[in-house]
Design a protein that fits this description.
The chain is α+β, with helices and mostly antiparallel strands. The protein contains four helices and six strands.
């Protein structure tokens, strides 16, 4: 009952997802509906109990906008997204982290795929919100409303 790199590889292949791997980490790069691209890295836990998903957005947030981005991230976290947490690192990169845990059960490729796609979609939805606050066009609260938009923004 463990999640191995071989199981992750088989799951990606079953889903028809292109990826690169060094045998441990699996990297998928895709164009989002909102973001120009997303990089998702899946790393199995050393003990086989699950995997960590990290999805990185393309833009670097300049120092002048980091406090408003933190406000925005707090608003998003208030939605109690069960499998995704957003972070802003010291270099100004925004990324999400999610976790797939087996909880002692057999590996379920459908659940793995659900978590993978949910993280990609949720991270992609943050992109127009970040654009709004970093362009100075709005407050964190107003930008947060873009998180729920149904269609991509034009432009």
């Amino acid at each position: 009952m463990s999640l191995t790199p071989e199981k992750i590889e088989a799951c990606f292949r079953e889903m028809g997802i292109a990826f690169e791997s060094d045998g441990k980490d699996f990297v998928h790069t895709t164009k989002g509906n909102f973001a120009p691209f997303l990089h998702c890295v899946v790393t199995p836990d050393e003990d086989g109990s699950g995997a960590t998903f990290m999805t990185i957005l393309p833009n670097e947030i300049d120092a002048d906008h980091r406090s408003i981005v933190c406000e925005l991230l707090n608003l998003v976290h208030g939605q109690s997204l069960w499998n995704v947490r957003f972070h802003l690192n010291e270099e100004g990169r925004v990324f999400s982290v999610g976790k797939h845990t087996l909880w002692g059960k057999p590996f379920n490729s459908v659940q793995f795929g659900d978590i993978f796609f949910s993280q990609l979609v949720t991270t992609d939805r943050l992109f127009p919100c970040l654009a709004a606050v970093t362009e100075g066009a709005t407050t964190a609260e107003s930008a947060f409303e873009r998180f729920f938009e149904k269609t991509p923004l034009s432009g």
